[in-house]
Amino acid sequence: MIEFKIEGDFIPMIQLLKAANLVQTGGEAQIVVDEGEVKYNGEVDYRKRLKVRKGDLVEFRGQKIKAI
Q1: pTM for this one?
Q2: How many whole angstroms separate alpha carbon 3 and alpha carbon 20?
Q3: CB burial class (10 A; 0-12, 13-18, 19+) of residue 38?
Q4: Is the dihedral of CA 5, 22, 44, 42 positive or negative?
Q5: Runs of H (alpha helix) within the chain
Q6: pLDDT at position 50
Q7: Cβ neighbours, 10 Å, residue 22
Q8: Strand pairing category for 57-60 and 38-40
Q9: Is 9 exposed, middle or buried (0-12, 13-18, 19+ CB in 10 A)?
């Protein structure tokens, strides 16, 4: 599991995927979210600008990111 420290109140989903090095570009992050490849707190979520906050769990291609 990747623990990602959030600076401030939140980070948008697509920025989190890019910052955690799970995708190469923001465009790729938008595509994988659009295609339903990302789970947010256990449920598929299609919102690219979703605000990921401390305590949230994001899953993508077998990787889990815990926002801390």
Answers
A1: 0.90
A2: 9
A3: buried
A4: negative
A5: 13-19, 26-34
A6: 95
A7: 18
A8: antiparallel
A9: exposed
Model confidence pLDDT, tens digit, residues 13-53:
999 999 999 999 999 999 999 999 999 999 999 998 899 99
DSSP-derived 3-state class of residue 59: strand
Local structure of 28: helix, strand or coil: helix
**39 within 8 A of 58, measured Cβ to Cβ:** yes
Largest CA distance in the chain: 28
Spatial contact of 15 and 26, defined as CB atoms under 8 Å apart: yes
Mean pLDDT of 3-9: 94
The Cα–Cα gap between 53 and 27 comes to 22
pLDDT at residue 16, rounded to an integer: 95
